[in-house]
What does this fold into?
Amino acid sequence: MAQVLKMPTTTELPDSPQRKFVEELFAYYRDAGRPALRIITDDIAAQFDAFTASRETIRRMLRGKTVPVNWQVVDAVLTVLCARANIDPDTERWEGSYDDSPTHRKNLRNLWNEALDAPPPPPAQASGWGAPARSYSDEPPF
It folds into this structure.
């Protein structure tokens, strides 16, 4: 059975332009019914003749481990996820807003550009030598 891909926690991916990009992309992944990465790559291969995106690249994008430098990779993933979610990527992202809303595609592209332009988020520190110091009490543990 395939492992369920989950949105990274704020500990794993702190608030940053990269996180906003991943949150938006992950919303399309959820709307598409969380398809297996193999299905996404197969859909990309079927729709984009000379273009492919590997399962690992897609997994790393959805987990916030990478932001591809090539927009075509992001656009291909968005296109197949939108197709599976019955969303037209060229319609307004926020329908009924008072001002002009960007399309789904344009909004994700803006977030992608912001994520590429921003400095990388600091790595998460789990425990060990790099972990922040804990406060200690003079009281015995019993």
User: Anything to note?
Assistant: The chain has five helices and no strands.
